């Protein structure tokens, strides 16, 4: 993962954005957005980092005097938005291979994750990032943290995460649903190439009160494969090989099935109230956030 993840122009644009949660269950977040439940309790609950725009009257000046850093006091019924970013770290995400990683799905996905996380941290949200691998959600975990000062640490974390093995999305998402104590906005970045499917896992997350956004990442050659002739296809996760002869008819059938698969996911997501964005890695990663996710109402 390149050290220079953002140039200054992209960074400034991302810092103007906020993640939007509109359907998280009442009792966790009230109102269209935002990061707090405004209750009447005066019981102290926790601290979070001060961010620009916070009410200075909320700073704990005693803590500031000791640590020389400003912290905001949170009350019992006042909680920041919990943001959960789940990154599919299976081998199928590490495609295509080769000297250029311009269209590599995992490189693209990590950049999207870093961009969304930077927005979340800058908004004072309570952010957790998890890499999904195998049938569990704890292969690599970062957070929960708050504050834009954590961005460089996040980038170092993502740089160390490698795509390997297979991911049972249903099992991994169910596992994460059980482990999380706070419902919030759950952003999942995956190619959805999991033989067991994904629907049961998404249902488990919704059952725990999460609002879900599904970002479906594919490479251009998966959408429009340049293959022809006699080929041996090898599953990147299982190593299982199959000999096929690819002609125009078979290629057309593949394209039709891919379009039907995407439409099936879109229909399922709409029926369940899940945000769904499908993107090819030839699209600039920042364009996905700045335009598509903004159009969908996930960022503002």
Question: Notable features of this structure?
Answer:
Rossmann fold; 10 strands; 300 residues; 2 domains; 23% strand; alpha/beta; 9 helices; two-stranded antiparallel sheet
Sequence-ordered SSE layout with sheet pairings:
Layout: H1 8-14, E1 44-49, H2 61-67, E2 71-75, E3 82-88, H3 105-122, E4 126-133, E5 136-145, H4 151-160, H5 169-179, E6 185-190, H6 199-207, E7 211-218, H7 220-223, E8 229-234, E9 241-246, H8 248-272, E10 275-280, H9 285-295
Parallel strand pairs: 3-4, 3-6, 6-7, 7-10
Antiparallel strand pairs: 1-2, 4-5, 8-9
Helix pairs in contact: 3-4, 3-9, 5-6
* Major β-sheet profile: 6 strands, mixed
Helical fraction equals 25-40%
CATH fold naming of the largest domain: Rossmann fold
- Unreliably modeled segments: 25-41, 230-237
Structural class: alpha/beta
**Average of per-residue pLDDT values:** 81
Task: Give an account of the 3D structure.
With 300 residues, the protein is of the alpha/beta class. The protein folds into 2 domains: 8-23 and 81-219 and 273-295, Rossmann fold, CATH 3.40.50; 44-75, no CATH class. The protein is built from 9 helices and 10 strands. A 6-stranded mixed sheet has the order 5-4-3-6-7-10, sandwiched between helices. Strand 3, helix 3 (105-122) and strand 4 form a beta-alpha-beta unit. Helix 3 (105-122) packs antiparallel against helix 4 (151-160), helix 3 packs across helix 9 (285-295) and helix 5 runs parallel beside helix 6 (199-207). The radius of gyration is 21 Å and the shape is elongated.
């Amino acid at each position: 993962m390149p050290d220079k993840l953002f140039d200054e122009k992209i960074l400034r644009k991302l810092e103007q954005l906020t993640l939007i949660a509109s359907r998280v269950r009442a009792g966790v977040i009230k109102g269209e957005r935002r990061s707090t439940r405004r209750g009447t309790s005066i019981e102290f609950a926790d601290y979070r980092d001060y961010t620009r725009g916070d009410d200075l009257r909320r700073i704990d000046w005693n803590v500031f005097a000791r640590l020389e850093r400003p912290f905001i006091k949170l009350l019992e019924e006042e909680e920041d938005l919990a943001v959960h970013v789940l990154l599919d770290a299976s081998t199928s995400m590490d495609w295509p291979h080769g000297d250029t990683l311009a269209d590599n799905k995992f490189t693209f996905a990590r950049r999207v994750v870093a961009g969304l996380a930077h927005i979340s941290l800058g908004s004072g949200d309570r952010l957790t990032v998890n890499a999904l691998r195998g049938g569990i959600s704890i292969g690599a975990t970062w957070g929960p943290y708050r504050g834009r000062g954590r961005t460089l640490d996040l980038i170092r974390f993502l740089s160390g995460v490698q795509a390997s093995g297979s991911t049972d999305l249903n099992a991994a998402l169910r596992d994460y649903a059980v482990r999380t104590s706070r419902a919030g906005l759950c952003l999942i970045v995956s190619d959805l190439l999991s033989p067991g499917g994904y629907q049961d896992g998404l249902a488990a997350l919704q059952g725990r009160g999460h609002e879900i956004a599904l970002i479906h990442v594919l490479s251009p050659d998966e959408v429009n494969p340049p293959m022809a002739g006699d080929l041996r296809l090898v599953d990147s996760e299982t190593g299982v090989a199959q000999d096929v002869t690819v002609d125009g008819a078979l290629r057309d059938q593949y394209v039709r099935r891919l379009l039907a698969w995407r439409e099936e996911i879109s229909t399922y997501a709409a029926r369940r109230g899940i945000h769904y964005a499908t993107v090819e890695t030839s699209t600039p990663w920042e364009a996905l956030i700045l335009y598509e996710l903004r159009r969908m109402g996930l960022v503002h």
